[in-house]
Amino acid sequence: MKSLSSKSGLLLATIPALFSPVTLANDVTEIGLVAIEPNMEALVEDLLKSQEIDLELLLSDSVPEQMIMQRSRVGITSKKWTDKEMARFDMRYGYRPTELMFTADVIAILANEDNPATSITVAELIDVFGCSNDPKHSKWSSSSDARNGESLDTHMLPFAIDHNLKGHTTFSSWVECGADGEYAHTQFLSDLPHLINKIEDEEAAIGYTVYSDQISDVKWLSVVDNLGVNYDLNKETILSGRYPLATVYYMYLNIPAHRKGFTEQEKFFIGLTLSEDHQEVLNQYGFISLPPEAIQRNKVRLSLEEPAIEGGYK
């Protein structure tokens, strides 16, 4: 079985108080295979490579099953475990897996600063960017919170970055053309600066891109879900699962409830959820880093800190 390089300890150098030498559990089986969903492969490989760690990845659409059947001790998935999966794991091991927030992938919608619209519905996004044999020429409509109910009264001009949706499976299924004869009105550009310039030059422009911690000074539209609820683009709505164009990813670890401390391999993966040090790598693949509130939640889940509110975190 492949092992963990000693360089992995560098990742946790910024939080030494959480992982003192006395907390190391040396008598525990190594993690072995790491079960992840296929679209996470490039990101996880790069995170491992950045710390010179050599671990084998197990690509699976059913991460809980891999952990329940003892094929992996760490899993990363966009699907929260069901009560049934938790019960099966508990029946086999006598305790539940440790659930931590890991990251999220997010699609953001851009508009021109002079456009009075402030929001757009999911249905409108599918219409303007979607593929069909006869795609619609969608027009701007007034947002419920737009100034004085104004709208541009003109057709939307859709733009996007070519090959920008790798790993973002849900939004890709809405906007990427597959069947013969299908096409979309979207104009594809080479990179983010070109997209932003186009949005700034065309008052009727609308664009989508993978959201990054490092993008600023642009106008994001809020998104109205299929129930009519309007959500701004921020990390609170993203990580709570409410922002309609985001997918939250969770890390699950098989850490026995009776023992204290963590193995070196566990410390590496836990460290990914307790620090923003890997923000640049996450952003490169279209994922966001965790805000302090989510990091605090993870520390509580790991019993590294006491809950900041009565009753803990849900």
Automatic annotation (TrEMBL):
<dbReference type="Pfam" id="PF12849">
    <property type="entry name" value="PBP_like_2"/>
</dbReference>
<keyword id="KW-0732">Signal</keyword>
<feature type="signal peptide">
    <location>
        <begin position="1"/>
        <end position="25"/>
    </location>
</feature>
<feature type="domain" description="PBP">
    <location>
        <begin position="72"/>
        <end position="254"/>
    </location>
</feature>
<dbReference type="InterPro" id="IPR050811">
    <property type="entry name" value="Phosphate_ABC_transporter"/>
</dbReference>
<protein>
    <submittedName>
        <fullName>Phosphate ABC transporter substrate-binding protein</fullName>
    </submittedName>
</protein>
<dbReference type="InterPro" id="IPR024370">
    <property type="entry name" value="PBP_domain"/>
</dbReference>
